[in-house]
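Hi R.,

As promised on Friday, here is the backbone we talked about, encoded as structure tokens. Could you run it through your design pipeline when you get a chance and send me back a sequence?
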């Protein structure tokens, strides 16, 4: 069994210390950051389509130290490997299976938190490998797929800011976030760490691969947080999801955008901890 701390680099930011960890997967290196008690309940964070592991650092800093907190650079992002192709659900899940071998010595199975794109990945993972996790938290996942409403935003919403950054055109890049609550400097760091191929191919999978099929298969205790100001889950779709799986507890958070955990980190941590406390 691979060792979790093998070749790990300890990093300190003010009063918060975490480890940079590299895991050798079958296709390339996977990078994670980890903090807390290694023998405690793991909580694994997985980011959105144009984010990276460090996006969850502010949340990790706010959580109790009696958890083992792990955030993953998914393939194509951060310091993980960036292949030219291979961004379907099965590819991401193969990487998670590699990472999960590191948890095999823990008494408790991980709680998985997936934002946006990773909500889809986590749903498919939980559907196929329910024995590998103890609970699931989905943050405003895209629910598009074959036979369903298409993903409501054009691909250019993700690719054009990335291309503007690569050209050094900060005016065009910043224009995409003027009317949002996003931290533009953080978004710049996130996008610089993302592969354009990863963004383009993952976007295609939003419409080509199913969400609801895997969602119906979930038997793990699950919390789904839907953002009130996000276009990803309509009121009608919200009701359908409620009826579709009794293992899923749903909550619509009003007056907040898609990036719930960034817009109101205190609220997100509260909702997460309330859910964790209900787990049997």
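Update: got your reply. Pasting your designed sequence below so it's all in one thread:
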């Amino acid at each position: 069994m691979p060792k979790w701390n093998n070749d790990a680099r300890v990093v300190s930011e003010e009063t918060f210390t975490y480890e940079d960890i590299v895991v050798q997967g079958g296709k390339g290196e996977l990078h994670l950051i980890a903090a807390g008690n290694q023998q405690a309940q793991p909580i694994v964070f997985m980011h959105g389509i144009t984010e990276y592991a460090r996006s969850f650092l502010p949340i990790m800093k706010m959580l109790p130290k009696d958890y083992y907190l792990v955030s993953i650079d998914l393939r194509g992002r951060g310091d993980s490997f960036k292949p030219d192709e291979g961004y379907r659900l099965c590819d991401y899940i193969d990487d998670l299976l590699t990472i999960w071998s590191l948890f095999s010595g823990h008494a408790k199975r991980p709680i998985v938190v997936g934002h946006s794109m990773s909500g889809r990945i986590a749903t498919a993972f939980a559907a196929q490998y329910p024995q590998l996790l103890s609970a699931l938290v989905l943050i405003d996942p895209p629910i598009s797929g074959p036979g369903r409403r298409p993903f409501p935003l054009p691909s250019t919403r993700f690719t054009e800011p990335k291309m503007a950054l690569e050209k050094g055109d900060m005016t065009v890049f910043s224009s995409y976030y003027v009317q949002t609550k996003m931290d533009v400097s953080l978004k710049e760091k996130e996008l610089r760490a993302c592969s354009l191929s990863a963004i383009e191919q993952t976007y295609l999978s939003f419409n080509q691969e199913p969400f609801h099929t895997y969602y119906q298969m979930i038997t793990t205790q699950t919390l789904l947080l839907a953002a009130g100001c996000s276009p990803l889950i309509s009121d009608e779709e919200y009701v359908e999801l409620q009826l579709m799986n009794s293992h899923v507890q749903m909550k619509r958070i009003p007056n907040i955008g898609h990036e719930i955990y960034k817009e109101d980190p205190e609220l997100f941590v509260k909702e997460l901890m309330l859910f964790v406390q209900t787990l049997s």
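One thing I noticed while checking it: The chain has a mean pLDDT of 93.

Thanks again,
M.
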